[in-house]
Amino acid sequence: MTETKDGVLCIDGVKVTDIVEKYGTPCYIMSENTVRENCRKYKNATQKHYGKNALPLYASKAFSCVEIYKTVSSEGFGADVVSGGELYTALKAGFDPKKIYFHGNAKTDDEIKYALESGVGRIVADNAEELCKIDRIAKSLNVTAEISLRIKPGVEAHTHNFVKTGQIDSKFGFALENGEAFTAAKTVSEMKNVRLAGVHCHIGSQIFDSDPFVLAAKRMLGFIAKIKNELSVEIKELNLGGGFGIRYVEGDNPIPYDDYMKTIAQTVKSESEALGIAVPFILVEPGRSIVAEAGITAYKVIAVKTIENIRTYVSVDGGMTDNPRYALYGSKYEACIANKADLPRDFKATVAGRCCESGDLIGENMMIQRPEAGDILTVFSTGAYNYSMASNYNRVPRPPVIMISNGEPRVIVKRETYEDIVKNDII
Ligand code: LLP
C-alpha cells in the first residue's frame, strides 16, 4: 500500500505531498484496494471453512460513512451497527437492511422502532428491559422481531493473554454463568412478537491469539445445546463477534485471518457434533482489521520545540480531535515524514496535537526523520477508530477523508468548515 517515490511517501502510487497540496492538512487518507483486499481475506476464509454457512459483517463503528458501507456491501459483507446514526448512514448508502445487525446496550425506543421499521436482519438484544421493549414495539408495528441475544461467555480476552473470570462484570449482554442468559432465552421463547434466531458474543478487541475465540465458541455452542435440550428451541445462528488484531507498531504480529477461521471452524464443527446440534450459521464481525491498516493521517508540522535533556515536542495541526486513541488508551503508532521518506527515522519525537490539553499527544518517543516546521508528518494504521471517534473539541473542524481508488484520490467525507461548527448554535 505504501512505498517511497522520489523520496516521498506514496499510498497506492499517489504522493502524500500531492494529496495534501490538493486537499490540505490534516487529512485522513485511505486505500480502497486495501479495504477490499481485507474484505476478501475474510470472505475467502469464511467460504473456505464454512462454505455458504457463514457471513462476515463489517463492524462499522470502526469507520462509518456512506462510502464505506457501499464498499463493504459490494464485497458481500453485512454490517454491524450500534446506533440509529450508524443505521441511518448504512441505509443512506443503500445497504440491504436484512444484512444489518443492530447492536447496543442502551437502545432507545425510537432506535428499536427505527430498526424494526427499516427491516433490519437482527436486533442483538442486550438486556431484559430491551426484550420487553422489542416485543412491545414489534407488536405495535405488527411484525415479528428476529433477534439474537448478546451473551457474555465468561471469557475475558486481552492482547496475548486471557482469563476466564471477570467478564460477568461487563455492561454488555447476558451472563452465562449466573443463568441470566438462559432466563433471557426462556423469556423470548414465551414472547409472541420476538423470535430467537441467534446468539452473539464479542470477547474484546485487538486480540492476537485464537485460544479465547475457541473457548468462547465452545461455551456458546454449549449454550445452544442447553437451549435445544431444555427449551426445545433450535438456535440456528452463532455470531462470534470481532476483535482480530492488527499491526500498529513493530512487534504486533497478527495471525492470518484464515488461521483464526480454520481453528475456530474446527472447534465449531467438532463441538456441534459432540453436542448433537446442527452446525450453526456463523457470523464474524471484524471492524479494525478491515480498515485500520488501510488508513493513514497526514498532518503539517507547525512547531518543533526541543527541551534540552528532556524531549522534543513536534506539534502538528491535528491531534486528539482526529485521533483520541493515545489520550484514551495510550495507543502506540508509527509515523514518518512523508516529504523525507528516504531519510533515516533516527529522531525521537513526542508528537503533540493542537488542543489545549497536555495529554493531547499522538505518541511519545516516536522515531521519525529529523522534523522541521512545514514537514508533512504521516501516522500509519489510523483507518479504524480515528475518524469515527473524532470530535470538535476546541472547535476544531474534522478533517476530510480522501479515498485512493485505483490510483485516483477522491473526497469521500468533506472537511468540516467553521460554518459546520456553528450550524447547531442558535445565533
Ligand atoms: N462486534 C462488537 C459487538 C463490538 O463491540 C466490536 C467492537 C466489534 C465487533 C469490532 O471489533 P474490532 O474487530 O474492531 O476490534 N474504540 C476502541 C475499540 C472499541 C471496540 C468496540 N467494539 C479502539 O479504538 O481501540
Structural class: alpha/beta
Mean pLDDT: 96
Bin the helical content: 25-40%
Low confidence ranges: 160-166
**What integer value in Å does the Rg equal?**
23 Å
H/I helix tally: 12
Categorize the overall geometry: globular
Written overview of the protein:
This protein folds into two domains: 2-31 and 292-422, Lyase, Ornithine Decarboxylase, Chain A, domain 1, CATH 2.40.37.10; 32-291, TIM Barrel. It contains twelve helices and 23 strands. With 427 residues, the chain is α/β, with parallel strands linked by helices. The longest helix is centred in the middle third of the chain and has 21 residues, at 211-231. α5 (109-118) links the parallel β7 (100-102) and β8. α2 (32-50) packs parallel to α9, α5 crosses α6 and α7 (180-189) packs across α8. The protein has helices spanning 16-23, 32-50, 66-74, 84-92, 109-118, 128-141, 180-189, 211-231, 257-275, 288-291, 325-329, 418-421; strands at 2-5, 8-11, 14-15, 27-31, 54-59, 78-81, 100-102, 122-125, 145-152, 156-158, 161-163, 174-175, 194-200, 237-239, 281-284, 295-307, 311-316, 335-337, 347-352, 361-368, 376-380, 401-405, 408-413. It binds ligand LLP. Residues 59, 61-62, 80, 103, 202, 205-206, 241-244, 285-289, 325, 385 line the site of ligand LLP.
Which key phrases capture this entry?
alpha/beta; binds ligand LLP; Lyase, Ornithine Decarboxylase, Chain A, domain 1; globular; 12 helices; 2 domains; 427 residues
Briefly say what this structure is.
The protein is α/β, with parallel strands linked by helices. Helix content is about 30%, strand content about 25%.
